[in-house]
Amino acid sequence: MHHKVKIFSGSASSYLAENIAQKYGQELGKVSLLRFSDGEFQTSFEETVRGTDVFIMQSTFPPTDNLFELLMMIDAAKRASANRIIAVMPYFGFARQDRKDQPRVAIGAKMVANLLSAAGATRIITMDLHADQIQGFFDFPVDHLYASSIFLPYIQNLNLPNLTMAAPDMGGAKRANAYAKYLKSDVVICYKQRAKANVIESMTVIGDVEGRDIVIVDDLIDTGGTLTKAADMMMDKGAKSVRAFCSHAVLSGKAYENIEKSKITELVVTDTIPLKQESSKIKVLSVADLFAKVLHSVHNYESISSNFIVS
Q1: What is the mean pLDDT of the chain?
Q2: Which pLDDT band holds residue 192 (cuts at 50, 70, 90)?
Q3: pLDDT on residue 134
């Protein structure tokens, strides 16, 4: 039996969901959000979802209301007898809490996985998780997409004569190496020591950057402290230019100020998270085409591997 598709969106990602639905070839489903005076809210679908494959889109960046709204929409779809409930989370919040890295801390990513499962999701579609192993926190399928399929063509079109890929830290070495292998370029790695979260104590670079056009790749940019410090350091060491490609534009605190004041040439991000303000140094590439293709493949039980360039 071929089930119908309905696409819905939470309030935080409606800007992106509208583009994805349009490229998919149908309108967004109708959903309402009722807010009470004390801040409590209630979600409801304004059309039947019985027997349909329901895609619910919501990036779970702060505040946590965005996550809870997604959970409530999943629960509502389950209670309304949807056939399959696929949570489309372009940005998966709490992903940085993927392990117990100090005593007496929560593993936030695992807790979110449990909540999604308990709410009734049957599948997850997301992009550039902070750690690949988060997929193992789920007992149902996870379609993990990569922004590389969007970033790599853009990097190639820049035609940089002395292209060198860079990882902002040791943890990003695998990603930078994958890009470098595809682009047949050199790779360098920044080594940093943190005094505490979001505070860098010292940083250096492993590899030669003099006269090179550096491209830093990372899964997200938060305060921009690491990225801008790395860009300034490499320019001081003789780099010709420094650009950065980050999938998720969290951009909190003084991020915009840090970027504008830095020596970075360009920051390229996707629209998994909406920008809070405009910046002459920030360029946004849309993931709408990619997600629309994957939604179509998931609904029709087709392979999605053709959408990957570098994983």
Answers
A1: 93
A2: confident
A3: 95
- pLDDT score of 3: 80
Output the six-digit token pair for 116: 């999604």
CB of 110 closer than 8 Å to CB of 92: no
Active site residues: 192
For residue 72, give the H/E element and its range. Answer: helix 65-79
Instruction: Report CA-CA distances (Å) from 224 to 43, 59, 62, 230.
Output: 35, 20, 17, 10
Q: What strand order describes the sheet that includes 142-145?
A: 5-9, 53-57, 84-89, 123-127, 142-145
Q: Which of 143, 227, 215, 231 is nearest to 183 (CA)?
A: 215
Pairing of strands 5-9, 53-57: parallel
Asked whether the beta carbons of 83 and 53 are under 8 A apart, the reply is yes
Using a 10 angstrom Cβ sphere, with 0-12 exposed, 13-18 middle and 19 or more buried, the burial of residue 252 is middle
Q: What are phi and psi of 80, to 5 degrees?
A: -95, 15
Beta-strand relationship, 31-35 and 123-127: unpaired
Q: Cα separation of 248 and 130, whole Å?
A: 10
pLDDT value at 194 more than 70? no
Does residue 200 register a pLDDT over 60? no
- Helix runs in 123-263, H state only: 148-158, 173-183, 225-236, 255-261
Q: What is the pLDDT of residue 45?
A: 97
Alpha-carbon distance of 193 to 196, in angstroms, equals 9
